[in-house]
Design brief:
The protein has 337 residues and is mostly beta strands. It has a domain of 142 residues: YVTN repeat-like/Quinoprotein amine dehydrogenase (Methylamine Dehydrogenase, Chain H). Helix content is 2%, strand content 54%. The protein is built from one helix and 29 strands. The strands form seven sheets. A five-stranded antiparallel sheet has the order 1-12-11-10-9, with no helix packed on it. A four-stranded antiparallel sheet has the order 4-3-2-29, with no helix packed on it. It is globular, with a radius of gyration of 19 Å. The chain starts with a helix and ends with a strand.
Length: 337
């Protein structure tokens, strides 16, 4: 059923599927190919920094909406999308940024959706969570419209993962203490959902490179749940000893999992095979976002409280350099090889 914006305002807290149009978009400019770039969102400054990963120099800063948390890049590398989560006031916009021109093309108003956060790109479209509405939505940048939404029915739907075929969508629900596994049925409009109970406050999660497992770090009890994605149930849990985990990312080879610990100021390194903590790397105040570089030899960790990004050598598990990108760095993305 097609609903108007007035209807959506009445239903914004419930599970739903709908299609809405916003506005026709101008033709998007073509981006030029360039060297590798690290993109870093600075929450305090409301900017997206373009960083040369070799020199560590910031080559450009692009204004975004208030309190940007997560950033992803389109599959062709032409556009970057920043979720403007907001700070004191709940945000309701997504910045669409021209990578080549290094400027914001448009700031998409997704109202009445609020607190856009987790982002994923698949099929040329952007999927994003809306925390306060208990749902995720899909934005079509070519048409400049939100064309689909699906309710989770779970509190604080925070992060999202979408497979390339767009047949499986995973969300971490902090307040619901759960992971939602959505699977598309034979009819593309019909989706089946399995809600998997995990530990307290699941926030950061990642899928193993082979696609078989999801590891979710619990921000409130120091544990990690391992979800078997075939059985759609928890196969194991272990204690990572974190004070308040924020993100979890696998190394490119899948041998280790890195967890950022906000409260203890550490990067926690876990051996995936044994599930044992092999090292705790002191970084500084409030480490948050984690990005694995394409080559697999460097992990970038945003140390929000000390206003820098740590470049961590994956082999030696030591900090190689510190990149000063702006105030309150968090979400990151990569362009190039």
């Amino acid at each position: 059923m097609l609903l108007g914006m007035r209807d959506l305002r009445a239903l914004s807290g419930s599970a739903l599927v709908l299609v809405i149009g916003i506005a026709a978009a101008p033709t998007l400019p073509r981006a030029q190919a360039g060297s590798a770039q690290l993109l870093v969102l600075n929450k305090n400054d409301a900017t997206l920094a373009f960083v040369d990963p070799t020199s560590g120099q910031v080559t450009a800063r692009v204004p975004t909406g208030d309190g940007p948390h997560e950033v992803v890049v389109s599959s062709d590398g032409k556009l970057a999308f920043a979720a403007n989560y907001g700070a004191q006031t709940a945000g309701s916009t997504i910045s669409v940024i021209d990578v080549a021109a290094k400027k914001e093309l448009r700031r998409v108003d997704v109202s009445p959706l609020r607190r856009p956060h987790g982002l994923a790109v698949a099929g040329g479209k952007l999927y994003f969570t809306a925390e306060l509405n208990r749902l995720f939505a899909r934005y079509d940048p070519a048409a400049n419209q939100i064309d689909w939404m699906l309710g989770t029915g779970q509190t604080t739907t925070h992060m999202i993962h979408v497979n390339d075929a767009e047949t499986r969508i995973l969300t971490a629900n902090i307040g619901g203490n759960s992971i939602s596994v959505f699977e598309r049925g034979a009819n593309p409009q019909n989706w089946n959902v399995t809600v998997v109970p995990v530990g307290r406050g699941p926030e950061g999660f990642d899928v193993t490179p082979d696609g078989r497992e999801l590891w979710a770090a619990h921000s409130q009890d120091g544990g990690v749940s391992i979800v078997d994605l075939t059985k759609k149930s928890v196969s194991a849990t272990f204690d990572a000893g974190t004070g308040r985990s924020n993100r979890l990312k696998f190394t490119r080879d899948g041998s280790q999992a890195f967890i950022s610990d906000l409260d203890k100021g550490e990067l926690v390194v876990v051996d995936v095979r044994t599930r044992a903590v092999v090292k705790r790397i002191p970084l500084g105040r409030m480490p948050e976002g984690i990005l694995m570089a394409p080559g697999g030899d460097v992990a970038y960790v945003a140390v929000n409280g000390d206003n820098f990004v740590a470049a961590v050598d994956v082999k030696t598990l030591t900090v190689k350099k510190k990149l000063e990108t702006g105030g309150g760095p968090d979400g990151m993305a990569w362009i190039g090889k």
